[in-house]
Specification:
Layout: H1 3-23, E1 63-70, E2 73-77, H2 80-88, H3 90-93, H4 102-106, E3 114-121, E4 124-128, H5 131-139, H6 141-155
Antiparallel strand pairs: 1-2, 3-4
Length: 175
């Protein structure tokens, strides 16, 4: 590959990266300073998921010394292996709707999400804000995802929620 072709390829890759970053909205970050309250987003994919209507297994807190940057936020991980998986494919592991409540997005807004109120659907991580909201979300998960996807296009550019997660005491990532 000659120098011109390599420069053109590098410029195209840089432009694509900037376009992807510009398309991504602000990640929800709470008082911990971490995305998903410092919980390990890769670990959700290894947890035993409970059936609809049952409380999920709690998320796994990350370690403040094992981190990666994505979508303008710092994500914490419980292991270096999980961090490496995330770095290799962050879009696969990052929560939908920039870490905002999936049902909130279905209703047309950006509200925070509790990292212990999660569900993986079609290999995507969705978070919700409260137990009551989880009930509404689970009444029609496919319908709520459709509404969220439709609404997300118009609300995605808005600033991230700055609200605190109700009834949630964040475990700061472990050191």
């Amino acid at each position: 590959m000659n120098r011109f072709t390599m420069t053109l390829a590098a410029a195209a890759a840089s432009t694509m990266a900037l376009a992807s970053a510009a398309f991504a909205g602000d990640q929800y970050v709470d008082e911990t300073g971490f995305a998903v309250s410092g919980y390990d987003v890769v670990a959700y994919f290894d947890l035993d998921a409970k059936p609809v209507g049952q409380t999920q297994t709690p998320g796994v807190p990350g370690n403040s010394n094992i981190t990666a940057e994505y979508n303008g936020a710092t994500f914490a991980f419980s292991t270096e292996e999980n961090r490496d998986k995330f770095v290799a494919d962050p879009a696969r592991y990052a929560p939908q709707y920039d870490g905002h409540c999936a049902y909130g997005v279905a209703q047309g807004g950006k509200v925070p999400a509790n990292p212990n109120l999660w569900r993986i659907v079609d290999d995507k991580l969705y978070l919700n804000i409260t137990d009551v909201v989880v009930g509404f979300w689970e009444e029609d998960i496919p319908g709520n995802i459709d509404k969220s996807e439709t609404n997300w296009v118009s609300i995605e550019p808005e600033a991230a929620s700055s609200s605190t997660i109700p009834k949630f005491t964040s475990e700061a990532p472990k050191s």
